[in-house]
Write a structure and sequence with these properties.
Radius of gyration of chain B: 28 Å
Number of strands of chain A: 4
Strand content of chain A: under 5%
Distance between the termini of chain A: 50 Å
Order of helices and strands of chain A: HHHHHHHHHHEEHHHHHHHEE
Number of helices of chain A: 17
Number of helices of chain B: 2
Strand order of the largest sheet of chain A: 1-2
Structural class of chain B: alpha+beta
Strand content of chain B: 25-35%
Radius of gyration of chain A: 22 Å
Oligomer: heterodimer
Structural class of chain A: mainly alpha
Largest interface: A-B, 107 and 77 residues
Largest sheet of chain A: 2 strands, antiparallel
């Protein structure tokens, strides 16, 4: 145990040192690429609907549901599909590393494209609305399997796995999530930083998989797996076990399944807080209050903001329990994610066309698409507003339903006698506050730092 | 697992992290276009014998400046000026006459390898009787200046203003109540359908 502690401590310390490498100026990872912000009328209608739906689900209609049946053993997806996904994940990893070694930056770089756009937004959305796609895309597990196969072929004997410390639970993933959020929102990590972090994180993950076992580490501590699986509680296809078997279920019924931990609630709160922070920190009001703060100040602001959201979430667990808090907050995280970043995915995601033409950033134009300029001109503002409003309000309503149903199933010890409606009020208040805030931020003009001119200048634009 | 193998792994991982931590810091900046002749969107009245573009950093020899005619055919291929590594030139075999031309610039910074791709257009309208008025046509001897000229900045280049005043960009859809009505109705209809589903769902399960 002491050895494991020392190993984790050394790696974590080393990783922090690696993360502390000074970096150059890089563009914001989530640049606004769509110029139509949510109209005031939509914001007001959404806020009103949010309050009304909370009222209906919490106070008026006492919806109940039983825990879903999870005995179905499911089935494995077709082998070609699994193989294809694993190949895509591995190619993506190799591509980032190859570009990182080659150096340079351009619109053809894939580190931010794959990690921020396709991964942090795209895979998250598919995990929540579809199924556990990351289970096969995960390049860390694929690399581990390849390494294990090679060592077996070389006749290297395997060693006994260490027991994963139960008290760690999913907290390592929570810590890693906070680091990722910091990289994204404060450091605004560009391709070179992401390359270094990816290589370091890969080394750490492979070492820990060797120490504790691939499946144990990925299901408890590998941040992408833990986060995407949690989002998967909404998905109609659920992962049954580590072999990759999946089963069909009703959309969002996974919210009612057992297994919520305090770490899960904190993780969801961090996700909500980070999305909100990303939106609010680019508003004119924020700029007037804080300007373009230096790295330590921005770090402190992020920590304070996330801290407030996490404390609010933890306070809610005292009234409705951990599971109900998780079930209430997770859908709004998904709603916010889609509302804030859908246009980013649809527009900036087009950069793959450029990358295919100049895969190693050599100035090539292999297939004649290197000069392609991603555009959102084809996106009707009305459609975007509809999706944003439906995502935020729909996510909120799903959270109100999930929180209520789970709260009815589980009362925290000592609060069984208190009326259900009273216990739910703190959760409803937190949810309405967060949702109103996110709708408001979606309607604000935003202020961003021009990539090349530093903090002294600013460009004002608006977000979609 | 023996403690010796664990120690070995610890050392390996620590070494790997140390190597990563030793990565040199890099300042990332593109070689920005500071001046293009003919400029983006300009109309010149004399045949163009050379297209010139000046950048904010030295360029590698892999940089390129290509000119396409209205049909998309490449009519001039150019690269870094042998006498000035911050300038690219593209000389056509035959001077450009009437038509619209598209310039494709791929600038690769010699400082950090960063690549910037830009596209801009200019039009040539040569009068039947050549006018004596000198147009912006330039030769290789055109004075090179590093001061940016607003008209030379292609629309794809980042723009910056010195004050952070938020304002709608040109072409941004106006956010009137009327415009928002349909999305609001559509969004709330979607939500209401989901609400009805949830409210009438007595049991959650498979």
């Amino acid at each position: 145990m002491r050895r494991a502690r020392a190993l984790v401590g050394a790696v974590a310390g080393g990783s922090l040192i690696a993360l502390a490498v000074p970096v150059g100026v890089a563009a914001h990872s989530l640049n606004p690429t769509y110029t139509s912000r949510l109209p005031l009328a939509a914001y007001l209608a959404g806020a009103a609907a949010t309050v009304a739906l909370s009222f209906v689900f919490v106070l008026v209609r006492d919806v109940r549901a039983e825990r879903p049946d999870t005995r179905d053993r499911g089935h494995l997806p077709p082998a070609p599909l699994r193989l294809l996904l694993r190949a895509v994940g591995l190619i993506g990893w190799l591509w980032i590393v190859a570009q990182g070694i080659a150096g340079g930056t351009s619109s053809a770089e894939v580190a931010t494209l794959f990690l921020w756009v396709y991964g942090w937004v795209g895979v998250a959305a598919i995990s929540a609305l579809g199924g556990p796609i990351w289970h096969w895309l995960d390049p860390f597990s694929t690399l581990f399997d390849v390494g294990a196969w090679v060592t077996r072929r070389l006749g290297v004997r395997s060693w006994d796995l260490a027991d994963y410390p139960a008290r760690l639970g999913r907290w390592p993933a929570v810590i890693a999530f906070a680091v990722v959020v910091w990289l994204e929102l404060v450091l605004e990590a560009g391709p070179q930083v992401l390359f270094i972090v990816l290589v370091g994180y890969t080394a750490l993950t492979l070492a820990m998989m060797a120490q504790y076992g691939r499946d144990t580490w990925r299901s408890n501590a590998e941040v992408f797996t833990v986060w995407f699986r949690m989002l998967g509680r909404l998905a109609p296809y659920a992962l049954v076990d580590e072999t990759g078997r999946v089963r069909r279920r009703s959309f969002a019924s996974g919210l009612l399944e057992p297994g919520w931990t305090l770490a899960d609630v904190v993780l969801v709160a961090l996700a909500i807080g980070s999305i909100l922070f990303d939106g609010l920190s680019q508003t004119q009001i924020w700029f007037e209050a804080f300007g373009f703060p230096a790295l330590p100040i921005q770090t402190a602001l992020l920590a304070a903001f996330l801290g407030i959201v996490v404390v609010a979430a933890l306070a809610v667990t005292r009234f409705v329990g951990v599971a109900a808090s998780g079930a209430g907050l997770l859908p709004i995280a998904v709603g916010y994610l889609i509302a804030h970043y859908l246009t980013y995915l649809l527009i900036d995601g087009q950069r793959i066309v450029i990358a295919l033409s100049d895969p190693f950033q050599r100035g090539w134009d292999v297939i004649g698409t290197a000069f392609f300029v991603p555009t959102g001109a084809w996106l009707p503002p009305g459609l975007v507003w509809t999706l944003q409003l439906a995502s935020v309000v729909g996510g909120h309503m799903l959270g109100a339903w999930g929180g209520h149903v789970v709260a009815a199933l589980d009362a925290p010890a000592g609060l069984e006698g208190r009326p259900l409606t009273v216990r739910q009020i703190p959760l409803a208040v937190v949810m309405v506050t967060l949702t109103t805030l996110t709708l408001w931020s979606l309607g604000q003009a935003i202020v961003v730092t021009p990539p090349e001119t530093g903090a002294a200048q600013a460009v004002a634009t608006s977000r979609g | 697992m023996t403690s010796r193998s664990g120690g070995r792994r610890l050392i390996l991982v620590a070494a790997a992290v140390a190597v990563l931590a030793a990565f040199p810091a890099t300042a990332f900046a593109h070689a920005e276009l500071v001046r293009a002749i003919p400029a983006d969107g300009s109309t010149v009245t004399e045949p163009v014998t050379v297209v010139s573009a000046r950048y904010s950093q030295d360029l590698t020899s892999a940089s390129s400046l290509n000119v396409l005619d209205a049909s998309g055919a490449t009519v001039a291929n150019g690269g870094v000026d042998s006498g000035d590594s911050r300038r690219m030139l593209a000389r056509p075999d035959v001077p450009f006459t009437n038509g619209t031309y598209t310039v494709k610039s791929t600038s690769i910074s010699a400082e950090d390898g960063d690549i910037e791709r830009l596209t801009w257009t200019f039009t040539v309208e040569v009068a039947a009787t050549p006018a004596p008025t000198p147009g912006p046509t330039v030769g290789a001897s055109a004075p090179a200046t590093s001061s940016p000229t607003p008209e030379a900045t292609p629309s794809a280049a980042p723009s910056a203003s010195s004050s952070p005043t938020p304002s709608a960009e040109p072409g941004e859809p106006t956010s009137s109540t009327t415009d928002a009505l349909l999305p609001i109705v559509a969004a709330l209809a979607l939500v209401l359908v989901l609400a009805g589903f949830l409210l009438n769902r007595s049991r959650a399960g498979r």
